[in-house]
Amino acid sequence: MKGQTRQQILEAALILFCKEGLEAVGTRDIAKQVDISLGNLTYYFPTKNDIILALSNEFTAAIDKELQAERAAGDKVFVDFYRQVEAVFRIQLRYRFLFNKRYAEIVTSIAEIQTYFQNVLKGHFVFWRELHQEFVQQKLASESLLEDTTSLSYVFNILALFWHQEQEIYMPKASDKQKVDHALAVFFQPYKPYLTKKGCKEFDKMIKKPKPY
Questions:
Q1: What CATH number should be reported for the domain holding residue 4?
Q2: pLDDT tens profile 111-145
Q3: In what residue span(s) does the HTH tetR-type domain sit (predicted)?
């Protein structure tokens, strides 16, 4: 029962944070949404920041699960990576309150969240290098991709973290599917100059050119 109430609080908070904005929602609003007393809510989460941290932990666990999933060997490596990125973008949309508008303020206001994202960036350098080595080994990309992996890692990190803000401005009425499709098209474009003919063939099967706003 305790676990169920805790999860109900988190689900209600997630809905309210995404719909109303983080600043507009207080613990009383969340308690009202769950139909429990404020005292009952604070038993599980003493402060609003504790709720944000718990949701952030849910988000990061879901992302880690996707990125740690084993990719298929051979020609399927690019397809599996595409599916990983698509899944990550969908998870980000579910927890969109973490990224909309005041992302940097949210991350830096809670030490545990800031530390996590700093560690994630370090881990991503290893992830990208291993992934790009697979691309080269499968003759999907040229050796120059390995030379530029560090720079591309920064590019991909920025694209992955801030595509929400871009779409809030330029695509406010788009559906979640349209948002993910657009984000995928933009995200994969930096790979194009590095791909071999074989890689381009796989790329063109999945990746569409970004449409103008």
A1: 1.10.10.60
A2: 887 887 777 777 778 888 999 999 999 999 999 99
A3: 3-63
Would you tell me how many other CB atoms lie within 10 Å of the CB of residue 104?
A: 10
Q: Which residues pair with 195 in a beta bridge?
A: 141
- Give the SS3 label for residue 195: strand
Nearest to 187 by CA among 149, 145, 158: 158
Confirm whether 51 is domain-assigned: no
Domain extent, residue 167, equals 57-206
- Name residue, tokens 């005292």: 39
DSSP three-state, residue 141: strand
pLDDT tens for 43-63 read 999 999 999 999 998 998 898
Question: Which of 206, 185, 192 lies closest to 89 in space, CA to CA?
Answer: 185
| Domain contains 172 | yes
The DSSP 8-state label assigned to residue 53 in this structure reads H
